[in-house]
Design goal:
The complex is a heterodimer of chains A (263) and B (328). Chain A has one domain. Chain A is built from 13 helices and no strands. Chain B is α/β, with parallel strands linked by helices. Chain B has 2 domains: 240 residues, P-loop containing nucleotide triphosphate hydrolases (Rossmann fold); 66 residues, Alpha-Beta Plaits, CATH 3.30.70. Chain B is 36% helix and 32% strand. Chain B has a 6-stranded mixed sheet, sandwiched between helices. A 4-stranded antiparallel sheet of chain B has the order 11-12-10-13, with helices on one face. The longest helix of chain B has 18 residues. Classes of the chains: A mainly alpha (263), B alpha/beta (328). At the A-B interface, helix 1 and helix 5 of A face helix 1, helix 2, strand 5 and helix 3 of B.
């Protein structure tokens, strides 16, 4: 099975879908502009009272926003499927993927792949531009490495969600569990070093929030040395490995209980 | 004898909540439902089998176990020498599946996009793909529809495209779950022709579930009848008819009466349904009387102008079997 070829085919299909709904794409860009504006207003207000928060300047916080937007771009474009898996299981949409000679999860991931990534990366770029205007320092090589870290963190989140939504085979609707993730993301546009140490550890190994903005920002600003950064990458790969095992285990167990629909 | 599909003592049991009142709604009782209950059958290569049963008789559940979607609770399924749910990737390369109620095509896009996708998934070569598309166009008149968005298609149009997509890779077995439901006569006829063609020319084994006995009569030699998860009949269609047809109707238009004695004799053997001057419609119980004898008596008794014999439709027979339960 040539997955690369299939990936390209799906990309073409997704672009075609996007072209069918051009207006939605443009609205998406407009809404991200609004999001950027509100975020800028919020942090701008706070920084009008103080120069730094626990060492973080306005420009640096904008970098954090940029990395978080990049995380969302990766997550919602590539791993979009993980948020909808429970519905796939409950409403029997899975049938379609089980009768094709492909790994059903990979097939579903490809199918849900959203080319909106270009629209979403747009807000990332705007945040970085704002950060530079505000005088945040950025090292280009370090930035490139940080992008890898952000990408890996979106994969970790996807795997956690796959593992959790596979519980839908037993439980049914998982909306409330997935809603918790939205809550988690509410605190994820803050640099984690402003939280207590225990919370920081939890945000590295438990729900690995720190990988999606704080560490990449610190490394881009050269406040993190290379060996420490590489250790963090190793931790990420370990987390991916662990969650991959868990997700496959739950998925395979669940598949045996799959009851489709009707009939 | 090599079989394409071997099913032995297959069961699928699932638990269903019995809804109660008040607190019982929160902690409902569980009940075991045998959707498919200990069935066995074999299907040879190239057979065209109708899998028929009332709603909720376990048809779709069986098909889903045969295609590897559901895992059996008990029993053995072996298709093309493989266990569907265990060797899924290898197995699904050799089968085609069409669910009438669910689309395999991308809803938002023209059908051609989905066909190209399936071409890549099943690794169909360009020349093969072209050849297939020509065949489809010849029988299904598909080309003009290919550039239309799937969601704007009528059911008949969509089904043509679904069939095309599911047969691109020349599968050895084709599973069809209610493909003609709600289609007009012309569309039905086209799809039947297409299926017959595929079955005869490419020796594709086809399993069809349907509520339309017209499909069964037009296409299948063999019928498997299902009731409450059990097989109640498995065999040739004509044998089922022979077994179940108890009465035939004879309509006669006649001139003058030739022989009063034969009229009396005939009247004893038949039930008269309608009668007017020069016309009579009779019903004969063929289990009790020899229909040839009855007809020859009639010909001797009156001056026959026109005569026709009708047997009840398959759908009537099947409806009767559903009502009465098991075939013995």
């Amino acid at each position: 099975m040539n997955y690369l070829r299939l990936f390209l085919r799906y990309m073409r299909i997704n672009i075609n879908t996007l072209l069918e709904y051009k207006a939605s794409f443009i609205l998406g860009i407009l809404s991200s502009l609004l999001y950027i504006f509100i975020s800028f207003l919020f942090w701008g207000t706070i920084y009008s009272y103080t120069k730094t928060i626990n060492g973080w300047t306005f420009g640096q916080v904008m970098l954090v926003q940029g990395f978080f937007a990049m995380f969302l771009a990766f997550f919602w474009s590539i791993f979009h499927f993980s948020e909808h898996m429970d519905k796939l299981i409950i409403y029997g949409g899975l049938d379609r993927f089980l009768v094709r000679p492909m790994n059903p999860l990979v097939a579903y991931m490809f199918e849900m792949f959203s080319v909106d990534i270009f629209g979403r990366l747009f807000s990332t770029i705007v945040f970085f531009w704002i950060a530079l205007q505000l005088g945040a320092s950025m090292n280009i090589m370090n930035f490139a490495a940080a992008v890898v870290m952000v990408f890996l963190s979106s994969a970790i989140f996807a795997l956690i969600l796959v593992a959790l939504s596979s519980l839908a085979f037993w439980i049914g609707k998982m909306e409330s569990v997935i809603a918790v993730f939205d809550l988690v993301w509410n605190i994820s546009d803050y640099p984690i070093t402003i939280f207590p140490v225990t919370a920081q550890i939890l945000m590295t190994f438990g729900i690995p929030l720190a990988f999606m903005q704080t560490y990449p920002t610190l490394f881009t600003m050269q406040q993190l040395n290379l060996s420490y950064f590489l250790q963090l990458i190793v931790i990420e790969i370990l987390l991916i490995f662990i969650w991959l095992q868990i997700a496959t285990f739950v998925w395979n167990k669940g598949l045996k209980r799959y009851s489709s629909y009707g009939g | 004898m090599e079989y394409d599909i071997e099913v032995k003592n297959l069961s699928r049991i699932y638990k269903k909540n019995i809804p109660g009142k008040g607190f019982r709604r929160i902690f409902p009782k569980k009940m075991k439902i045998r959707a498919v209950d200990d069935i066995s059958f074999n299907i040879k290569k190239g057979e065209f089998v109708a899998y028929v049963g009332a709603n909720g008789s376990g048809k779709t559940t069986t098909i889903k176990m045969l295609t590897g979607i559901l895992i059996p609770t008990k029993g053995v399924v072996k298709c093309l020498g493989m266990i569907p749910w265990k060797q899924r990737i290898k197995y699904t390369k050799d089968i085609g599946v069409v669910f009438g109620q669910k689309t395999m095509l991308k809803w938002d896009l023209p059908a051609i996009d989905s066909l190209l996708l399936y071409k890549d998934i099943y690794e169909v070569s360009d020349s093969d793909f072209k050849e297939r598309m020509q065949l489809y166009d010849k029988i299904l008149n598909i080309n003009e529809r290919l550039n239309q968005q799937v969601r704007k298609m009528s059911f008949g149009e969509r089904m043509r495209c679904e069939l095309a997509a599911s047969l691109l890779h020349r599968p050895k077995i084709l599973f069809l779950d209610e493909p003609t439901v709600g289609m007009d006569v012309v569309a039905k006829e086209e799809i039947r022709n297409f299926l017959r063609n595929i079955n005869e020319k490419e020796k594709t084994t086809i399993i069809l579930t349907t509520h339309d006995m017209g499909d069964v009569e037009a296409l299948c030699d063999r019928i498997i009848l299902l009731d409450k998860g059990k097989i109640i009949y498995d065999g040739r269609l004509d044998k089922l008819k022979k077994k179940y047809i108890q009465t035939k109707n004879i309509s006669i238009t006649y001139g003058k009466v030739k022989n009063k004695k034969f009229v009396e004799r005939s009247r004893k053997k038949v039930k008269i349904l309608e009668e007017e001057k020069g016309y009579v419609k009779l019903s004969v119980n063929i289990k009790e009387h020899d229909i040839k004898k009855v007809i020859s008596d009639i010909i001797k008794s009156v001056d026959v102008i026109d005569i026709s014999v009708e047997e009840p439709e398959l759908s009537e027979i099947v409806a009767k079997i559903y009502r009465e339960g098991r075939v013995k």
